[in-house]
Amino acid sequence: MSGITVRSELIYFFIGVQDKVNITTESECKESPNKKGKEEIESKKTNNTLEKHLHNLNEILKCSNATPILKQGGIGYMCSFCPEQYPKPEDLKKHNLREHHGQTNLKIPCTSGNRRSLYRYSVRLDITGLSCALCDSNINSLEKFIVHIKQKHNRDIYLDINNHIVPFKFDTEQLTCCLCLNTFERFKILQEHMHKHYRNYVCDVCDAGFINQGSLNSHTQTHVKGTFACSFCNKIFDTVTKKKMHVRNSHTHRNMVNRCGYCHEGFREYYMKEQHLAKVHGVHNNVYKCNACDKTFSTPKKLRSHVKKDHLLERHHNCSICEMKFFRLHDLNEHMVKHSGDKKFQCEVCLKCYGRRKTLKEHMRIHNDDRRFKCEHCGKAFIQKCSWKAHMKNRHGQIMS
Hints:
By secondary structure, this protein is an alpha+beta fold.
């Protein structure tokens, strides 16, 4: 059939895992023949299972328009054949078809140290608009497609193994799970969610499911209780996972997690990286528009919050002293300063005290002569927004929101 790219069956085994060096004594090196025999049998069994997984993956890629995704990098969705990245998955799919990557090797995580293993094996597969390359049939799920090519086209597919191929669809404005239709703000969170649907390995403590053994082993660390001290400061944590998160966020990789893929600048928060991408590199993610007004938002969460606060007028946090109600608990806590009279935020220049950190920051503009509010008509600039609004109304007849 013309126009069908048959992908190579050669697969390159890749994962970023450091080699571990084990120091053993002479007696430990003298293993019994029975132990060696069991290990060889187990190794052959594992390799045989892995070969089945890789065979199934090859059949799916040869017989469909599905696109493998290596991971999400600093720029976007990363090609599994070359270093190219794209902010939108549909652009990666176009790239895949344009480059005819069937002549190069596919990178997938299926090694552990120096040996091939199922330990980290999993494949992310974009099945948006999934169709059969053998008969042009449109098929809406990966499971149905596997049955289709096995029964209708007599392709050799192994059904006696668990599925480690995770499907994704990008046919809606929001990131949506193609199995349960839940929506997510980030691809990383959607990937974590998919473990719930592929319970190949299950935690004995909390019954959480995981795609591969490596993910389960990482999860089990969260259940190990103890005393874990930070080597950079004096904080103590009850799990090693909490300690690692603290070290990464506060000491070693604070600006490394959210790193721009274009200029490699790091950011403390994900939304700061998103703002940087839009402002500096012109890369805009999906915009979510409110149906009740003209406002737009960068995430579904921000849109939902806006609808609840500004249109549904939800106010679940009540002041215990006056009749005021607030949408967020933070707003209530800010309001309570009026009743308590606490002023714990002091200016280091003039020693004035304020009840809110935000008010202190606004006050500091006076000392820094920060005139950020500028009149577009006469060029006069103001430190306080209220002064700028009064100027616009009195001098130019404009009422600013």
